[in-house]
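Troubleshooting: if your tokenizer reports a length mismatch, compare your output against this known-good record of 216 residues.
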Amino acid sequence: MKSTFLKMSVAGTALLAAACTPAFDQQAGGSLNSAGLFGDAVANNSVVQSVNLRGGVLADLSARFRSAAPDMINFAFNSTALDAEARSILDRQAVWIRSNPNVKFRVYGHTDLVGSNGYNQALGLRRARAAVNYMVSRGVSRRQLEAVSSFGETRPLINTSNRERLNRRTVTEVFGFTGGASQGEFDGKVANGIYEGYTGIASNVGETGAIGGDGQ
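Known-good structure output:
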């Protein structure tokens, strides 16, 4: 009797293990790999950690950039010309961007609400290009300014249909990373490399004009 009970217990344990194994594998994220690790789970966790790390680095870079230089410049009505204040701000942006060659930026152009949507869309784009071209003339690599975009009149800071200087602006934002890191190949080694030697130094650089060019 005892021998029969023992056999039944062993068989029951084996069945229980067999029944639990698939559920356990699924919960853990996959089957054991040759190294004795849950390969899929480890891979998935690595992806999640990389995404979280990348997001945290981008947020930190954005904060560092804004502490080093204002991220916004303003324009006269219906103009893309960079005045002395705008050039001074872009000089400071350019210094920080040059000091961080692994970081990409996007410049967004905006207008006030005077004029047609189509005209203001094009005007916002010309303003963004004026800012980008100026920073390139200050030694910034064009590959760091990956894209130039325009929101036109769709995102005013001040909601008024009248002329408003604060709405006539470009905004420079951290967008991603150069090379493989910008394609998601972002790990601890890349993060450490990007974090090395950050500076946020203001610059007194000479002046260069830009082409002039809200609402018609």
